[in-house]
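Weekly puzzle thread! Below is a chain. First person to post its structure in token form gets bragging rights.
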Amino acid sequence: MTLTFESLLGIALGIGLAAAAGFRIFVPLLVAGLVARFGHLPLAESFQWLATTPALITFATACAVETLAYFIPGLDHALDVLAGPATIVAGILVSAAVMTDLPPAVMWPVAVIAGGGAAGLAKGGTALLRAQAGAATGGLANPLVAAVETLGAAGLAILAIVVPVVCLVLVIVLLTWSVRRAGRLLFRRRRA
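Winning reply:
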């Protein structure tokens, strides 16, 4: 199988949307569903349901509940613990949905490894940032972190749709920074 430019754009788009799921689970699903609903984003045949009215209402409701819950200190930490596996599943789902030019034998491994991996790493980075902000400010900065994460999820999802390659580069830079930062923190803790 030869990868075409469209296939590579689909992979970049999928990874960008998956990384956005690491900030907020339902935001990239809602954004992708809305853009597909208006005919500006092709979805794989088995994911056409993402653009249906019931799915969009469900995603919008879930986005509102998830976003508001992250503004409640204590509950935001509990959500981070519970959201880890759901984030990876959402990353896989949203990335597979937009890889329309790939056969399933290629799409699913890419969605699981790249999409799930990007979502999981992004979620780990945001959880680490929230924990650090919470420890440094006694939880007072957590609402600010929650607002930035929500805006980041929406912005990253839109960027992935508009300019997928630029978004992919940004995701790689952010994930690299996040992994390095986490590594430095672990190294400091071990030395202490």
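Puzzle host: Confirmed. Bonus trivia for everyone else. The mean pLDDT is 92.
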